Amino acid sequence: MATIADSVGEMREDIPLKQGTKSARWCSCDEDVFGGSRFVNISFGVLSVVVTIALLVQINYGDYQVAPHGSVASDSSECSSIGTTILKNGGNAVDAAIASTFCLAVVNPHITGLDASGQMLLYDHRTREKPITIDFSNIKSEMGLFPRLTIAFAYVHKKYGKLSWKTLVQPSADLARSGFLVSRTLASSLLNYQGPNNIFGGTLEAGKKLTLKPLGDYLSIIGNTAEEDLYKHVSNTNELLESLAAVSKFKNYNIFVPATSEIGSTLMSNLQQLDHFNFSASELLKPSYVSTIAQVTKNGYDNLNTMGQYYEGTSSNVAVMDLNDFYVSIVTGMSAPFGSGKVTVGGYLSDINYTAKLSHLPLIITDTNYVCGRRIVLGFGDIVIGSQVITSLLLSAENLTISVEGPRFHILRNGALGIEKGHTPSYSTDVINNLENLTNGMVEQIKEPYSSCNVVEKYGDALNSHSDSRGGGIASRF
């Protein structure tokens, strides 16, 4: 007979989880109702019944998920799966997020890589203290010996991780050497790329296998290098910034953003203005709502000269929740698609601009009033996407997938609004006409790739996750 531990398996977001019961549920939405010995007695009684039922079900029906579970959402099904494997093997959310992001550096070199910059938020919902911000946007190796993502992750892992450093890096090294299937977004990005056209020896075809042996060998070297030997090369003027996150309120939710970036305060200002309009869930795709959020966001961009302050780059995010309610959001990216376009001796692409301020924005959202209310981990490449997704998630009556997959507009550098031409669902004709009236006809259709937003959400003990189809990934959970 299979044991309860053996029954814990990986599930993709397109294959629903069986409904199970956590054997140690610490989070109770009725926590104020019971107290003292009565609470203890009831808890033990309920726990005994649950365990007994779970064992009887397993005996009669085979494997059944009764263990706590976690989830990883990223722009690659392989990378999400690597993350949940780390969780199943005893790693925490930090371990899973690092392992998944290393994987993205292999399979999605058009948007991130070992030389990428970024920010991350770390949050323990059990203590409910402010999340920790780790900003490695300015980091650079003093001697150029190691790319900045490896330096930043070595520091974070040494301080907050559980599993060995090699355990987190090796899956990506193996994947690079054995090969992976080229995604549609990678193939189309290379086709539209204006830089060197021989990055991978020519064009790539979606669905074909690509091997990156030099990158795999280099990752193995990284995995076998002690963390302190990696991050000791950081210069005093380009070090990691670690601080507590900033927090703002939107409706009945806490919105946590990195305190080290002005883009976070811009998002908060944007949300506070939108909060005054009191839109209902039924209005979110109506012309008046879309026009209002576009006008407010565009004004915020213009007033704060956001386009002038921030460099237009790429972004990729990983969202993780582990079985102990520890949450991590990471957003990484480079200052241009494929960075500099130059492949280093380590097999990775270097970035093109190390001083660029990119609008990386990891977020964590919690219910203001209820410990067991909604908790959401997500990330964005800019506040335009952030404002639209957050309002949809927190105002809409629709499910997580519908909120993430909804149509979006972008603010382009020429001041026009960009509409995603190739994404479904799309805006109605009425919405587009309203946007054209708002901008005096300055509405353009933009091609892929589009910025994605990957989300993991928990309500009570129920967990859900979704990887944005714009990024081509699939979330994984167990």
Describe the structure.
This protein is globular. An eight-stranded antiparallel β-sheet has the order 1-19-2-10-11-3-4-7. The protein is built from 14 helices and 19 strands. The longest helix is centred in the first third of the chain and has 26 residues, at 36-61. Helices cover 35% and strands 18% of the residues. The two termini are 20 Å apart. It has 478 residues and is α+β, with helices and mostly antiparallel strands. Strand 12 and strand 13 form a beta hairpin. Residues 1-7, 16-25, 28-35 and 53-68 have low confidence and may be disordered.
- Which regions are unreliable across 5 or more consecutive residues at pLDDT < 50? 1-7, 16-25, 28-35, 53-68
> How many β strands by DSSP?
19
Shape annotation: globular
Biggest pleated-sheet summary = 8 strands, antiparallel
Report Rg.
22 Å
Structural class determined from secondary elements: alpha+beta
> What is the overall pLDDT average?
83
The helix tally amounts to: 14
Give the strand order of the largest sheet, numbering strands 1, 2, ... along the chain: 1-19-2-10-11-3-4-7
Helix content: 25-40%
Strand content: 15-25%
Distance between the termini: 20 Å
What topology emerges from the helices and strands here?
Layout: E1 11-12, H1 36-61, E2 71-73, H2 77-88, H3 93-107, E3 117-124, E4 132-135, H4 148-160, H5 165-178, E5 180-181, H6 184-191, E6 209-210, H7 213-223, H8 227-231, E7 241-244, E8 246-250, E9 253-257, H9 262-275, H10 287-303, H11 306-309, E10 316-321, E11 326-333, E12 361-367, E13 374-380, H12 383-395, H13 400-405, E14 409-411, E15 417-420, H14 429-438, E16 443-446, E17 455-459, E18 462-466, E19 476-477
Parallel strand pairs: 15-16
Antiparallel strand pairs: 1-19, 2-10, 2-19, 3-4, 3-11, 4-7, 5-6, 8-9, 9-12, 10-11, 12-13, 13-17, 14-15, 17-18
Helix pairs in contact: 2-3, 3-5, 5-7, 9-10, 9-12, 10-12, 10-14
